[in-house]
Specification:
Helix content is about 50%, strand content about 5%. It is of the alpha/beta class and about 375 residues long. The protein folds into 3 domains: about 70 residues, 434 Repressor (Amino-terminal Domain), CATH 1.10.260; about 45 residues, no CATH class; about 170 residues, no CATH class. Strands 1-5-3-4-2-6 form a 6-stranded mixed beta sheet, sandwiched between helices. The radius of gyration is 33 Å and the shape is elongated. About 35% of the residues are buried.
């Protein structure tokens, strides 16, 4: 015998029986040799008793092997008896490690199934894949304007946006109508309550607006993609930034993507970082467009040049009235241009509760439709 553990697991008792037969030893005389009861040897051979360290040393001394060999034989055999259960555990651990199963169940994106097999099928069905390690993609080639790949948490959020957007009934998309509606949208920027009209205006232009509360850690502000062979644009917002200026900047950013035709044949996922650099041309153009829509860039720069660094609340509010913008939007642009994020924060109201009253929303206390 050697110290090699066989690939197929057999009971150590089978090896013991072979060794006794090879030496023409009876179980009784072997038991006497090692100073053990004959019943112990019989139970070892029958596989009814496992190998203890003490027994392993005795067997090793009798047959000229190592004690580790007998321990390995017993361990391999015992593991083989529970392999089906451990395989299921491994599959479930891999599934939960890759996908945010708990959060998806909590949010009602997948059912609270009783068995792992049911949970697995729900998760795979949600993403439209056959196995847990398959590549995730919508019916488009995924594209992101950052260095890292999309995480499965972000994919889960995007798929929920896609589900809700597909269920929305809106007019056929018209770029002409969307461009014409820009002035109507700008008129809503004077008061927080006016944003409740945004979903209706966009729907009349054929743009589907969906709000989905992000899963913690998803690091996502918005998404732009197209349905129906790139003819039906979708804007998904997470409302991660709940202040009026962040909301309008994010919305205008995604509208700029649509007007440019960005995201056709792909997905544009946006996570706004005020200190970001090295963004691509599409993102730069959308940023510039959104900044100009929030407050015309030339007027904003002129105001900053005249008043920096001693900005007064009176001058800021007066400038906001001239620009026909809420002071919170102007405050946000001053912060963005100067990097002074503490300026006029009290003038930046929260707007999440207002927009979720009229937009198709999943999360933030609202349950999306069952699809």
């Amino acid at each position: 015998m050697t110290n090699i553990v066989p690939a197929q697991a057999f009971s150590p008792g089978e090896f013991l029986r072979d060794e006794l037969e090879a030496r023409d030893w009876t179980q009784a005389e072997f038991a006497k040799m090692i100073g053990r009861p004959p019943r112990l040897v019989s139970e070892l051979i029958a596989g009814k008793r496992g190998i203890t360290p003490e027994t392993a040393h005795e067997l090793a001394a009798a047959f000229g092997t190592s004690a580790q060999l007998w321990m390995n034989l017993d361990a391999a055999y015992q593991l083989s008896l529970v392999a089906p259960q451990t395989e299921r555990i491994s599959r479930e651990a891999a599934l939960r490690q890759r996908f945010p199963v708990r959060e998806m169940q909590k949010r009602g994106w997948i059912p609270n199934a009783d068995t792992f097999e049911e949970i697995e099928q729900c998760v795979l069905g949600y993403f439209g894949i056959c196995a847990a390690n398959d590549v995730i993609a919508l019916p488009h080639a995924a594209r992101r304007n950052h260095d890292e790949e999309l995480s499965t948490i972000q994919w889960a959020w995007i798929f929920r946006v896609n589900q809700l957007a597909t269920a929305l009934q809106v007019s056929a998309y018209s770029e002409i109508s969307l461009r014409a509606s820009v002035s109507d949208l700008e008129k809503l920027m004077t008061e927080p309550e006016e944003i409740r009209h945004i979903p209706k205006i966009l729907a009349e232009c054929g743009v589907r607006l969906v709000i989905v509360e992000p899963i913690p850690g998803s690091k996502i502000d918005g998404v732009c993609f197209w349905l129906k062979s790139d003819t039906a644009p979708v804007i998904g917002l997470s409302l991660k930034g709940d202040l009026i200026d962040r909301f309008w900047f994010t919305l205008w950013h995604e509208i700029e993507h649509i007007l440019r035709g960005d995201g056709k044949g792909g997905i544009i996922v946006d996570e706004f970082d005020d200190n970001s650099c090295g963004i691509d041309a599409a993102e730069k153009a959308a940023d510039e467009g959104a900044t100009n829509r929030c407050v015309p860039t030339k007027a904003m720069k002129d105001f900053i040049a005249r008043h920096s660094p001693m900005f007064s609340e009176k001058n800021m509010i007066g400038f906001a009235k001239i620009m026909k913008r809420h002071p919170g939007i102007v405050a946000g642009q001053i912060q963005r241009h100067t990097g002074r994020w503490d300026l006029f924060k009290k003038h930046q109201p929260r707007v999440r509760q207002i927009i979720t009253e009229t937009a198709l929303t999943d999360g933030y206390g609202r349950t999306g439709p069952k699809l």
